[in-house]
Amino acid sequence: MAYWSKNDGVPFSFLFRAFDFTAQRVCRNDVNVACNMLRTVMRTTPRDLLAVFHLLANKIAPKHELASDLGVGSGLIITALAEAYNKPEDEIRNQKKNKRKKLDLVEELVMAAGTLGQAAVYNEDRNLEPLDSPEAAEIVKRVHSVCLVYDKLIWAILDDGISKLSSSCSFSIGVPVEPMLAKLSLAESEIIERFNGTAYVCEYKYDGEQAQIHYMEDGKVEIYTRNLEPSSEMFPDVV
C-alpha cells in the first residue's frame, strides 16, 4: 500500500519493507511481494519504476555498457558491512553463505522479468486485449531476452502495454541478445523423452569461444561474449 503522494518519489522505506518481507519469509511467495511492489510503483510513481527495477535486479546498467562495472568485489562489501554494523567479517561472510541460495532464487526470478509482466497486467486499465498473468510474464521474458535495456523495456510497457511489447521492443544493433544455451541431460533416454516423439538432428559439440558480432551502422564492429560483455579487443583479427 502506498503511503506517499503521487508527486513525491518512492520512499526507500517502502522498498526496504518489501525486501524485508522476503528476507524474513513473512510472505511465502516472493513473486507476489515483488509483483505488488512494482505494481504500486507503476500506479503511483511510474517515473521511478526504472530505478526501482534496477535495484530489484541488482543492476545499475546493462552488461554491454562499459560503465556498468563498478569494480566492487564481495570482499570490499563484507568489510564495509562489518565496519558499519560492528561485526566480525567472518560472521558477515557466514551470513552471506547462508543467504546465497535465497539470493540466487531472487536474482533468477527478477532477471526472468516475470514479475514485471505480472505487475503490468494488474496495472493496465486501458481497452487492450486482455491477458492473464502467466501469459504476460512469458511475453516479458521473451522480449527481455532480445531487449536487455531496461529503460526501453519499461517505458514500452508503460506507454503501450504488454500486448504490444513484442513490436515495441525488438532486436537492436549494438545491444547483445541472450544466447540460447543448451540444457544438460544425464542420459540419451532423457533427451528422447524430452522431445516426446518429435524428430530431431544431433551433431557434435566443439569447444571454443562463443561470441555475438554486431556490424554497426557507422561501419564499426562490436563483439560480445556469451555473458553479453564487450570483447572486441580480444578479436582484433575478426574486427
UniProtKB/TrEMBL annotation:
GO terms under biological process: DNA recombination; DNA repair; lagging strand elongation
Keywords in alphabetical order: ATP-binding, DNA damage, DNA recombination, DNA repair, Ligase, Nucleotide-binding
Keyword check for Nucleotide-binding: yes
InterPro entries per record: ATP-dep_DNA_ligase, DNA_ligase_ATP-dep_cent, DNA_ligase_ATP-dep_N, DNA_ligase_N_sf
ATP-dependent DNA ligase family profile domain mapped to chain residues: 179-239
Residue stretches in coiled coil: none
Pfam family name, one: DNA_ligase_A_M
Keyword check for Zinc: no
Name of the protein in question: ATP-dependent DNA ligase family profile domain-containing protein
Species of provenance: Gossypium schwendimanii (Cotton)
Lineage, highest ranks first: Eukaryota, Viridiplantae, Streptophyta, Embryophyta, Tracheophyta
